Amino acid sequence: AQTVTQSQPEMSVQEAETVTLSCTYDTSESDYYLFWYKQPPSRQMILVIRQEAYKQQNATENRFSVNFQKAAKSFSLKISDSQLGDAAMYFCAYRSTGANSKLTFGKGITLSVRP
Amino acid sequence: DAGVIQSPRHEVTEMGQEVTLRCKPISGHNSLFWYRQTMMRGLELLIYFNNNVPIDDSGMPEDRFSAKMPNASFSTLKIQPSEPRDSAVYFCASNTVEGGTGNTIYFGEGSWLTVV
Predict the structure, then answer these.
(1) For chain A, first and last CA: distance in Å?
(2) Cβ separation B33–A45 shorter than 8 A
């Protein structure tokens, strides 16, 4: 079974600075999808970024980018120019390919942004 | 397009009462997931459906929980009888493998359940 590990429960960043959130996973599959979801205090789960394992290029969405290291099974999220609205819980998630596959989440990391 | 729609958003009920949570997936999505989030356990998958058929219900905690998907646009999660330890945020999510979203699962806003 696949597992997702987020070892840092909390992180803090100064506004306008850059922060990196770590995630590792364990799988025997060669093709899969990785995701970062953001959960603000409203509890809504918001997709931040997605990475297909077969793509070598790291995904980027505006201020959010990932460092995907397939061999190391590492998938970190970098937030540049941090904003107060980035304060939230962030979840790393894994999904196998195929219609009948579920999303496996890490335990999440709480990010606070200092003004 | 409307996202995943859940109701009720908030519910407070007394122990022993029946609770029904509802979900309307995104139109055209053929997979539907029910997740539960608590402080202790984090995000847990309870059950998921593909083309209205339950694929994996191994996450359903016990017989008090049941889920149905009578058609492609509606699903329910029922707890009967409810207990205080069922207090959590329940998320419904949906997905399709077709189109550019490829395997991305979209979540509803969640149903906050408090059992007193």
Answers:
(1) 41
(2) no
